[in-house]
Amino acid sequence: MPRAVTEAVASARASLNDTGAVRVADAEMVGYVNDAVDFLYVRRPDLFTGQHGAPWTALALGDALPIPERFFRPLVDYMTGCCALKALTMRSERRVS
User: On the CB side of 90, how many CA atoms lie within 13 Å of its CA?
Assistant: First the structure.
C-alpha cells in the first residue's frame, strides 16, 4: 500500500523535532514533497511505469505518494534537509542585518 504525503510530512517533522508544526508550514513541506517527486519523475521515469503520458500534477497533503516504498526515507531526508537549510539561512541573514 503506498504511503501518503501526510506520512512523509509527519516523519520529516519528527526528524526536525517540529511535531507541533511551529517551524515549518504544511504547505512548505508539501512543496518539498512535490520538488522531490518531480525530480524523480524527470531523472527516473522508469519509477512511473504505467503512467507514461499522464500529466504531472502536484500532490496535496492527503494524496498517496506515487513512488516505490524504498524511496520514502530518502524523500523524507530530502524534506528534512531543505527545512534545516532554510532555518540555517534565516539565522545567518538575521545575524547580518
Answer: 8
pLDDT tens digit at each of 97 positions of the chain:
789 999 999 999 999 998 888 889 999 999 999 999 999 888 988 888 776 666 778 999 999 999 899 999 999 999 999 999 987 776 666 655 5
Whole-number Å distance between alpha carbons of 16 and 60: 21
Distance CA 23, CA 65 (A): 24
Measured CA to CA, the distance from residue 80 to residue 14 in angstroms comes to 9
Burial category of 7 from C-beta neighbours within 10 Å (exposed 0-12, middle 13-18, buried 19 and up)? middle
Q: Which residue in 44, 60, 47, 63 sits closest to 3, CA to CA?
A: 63
- The answer to whether the pTM exceeds 0.85 is no
Length reported for the chain? 97
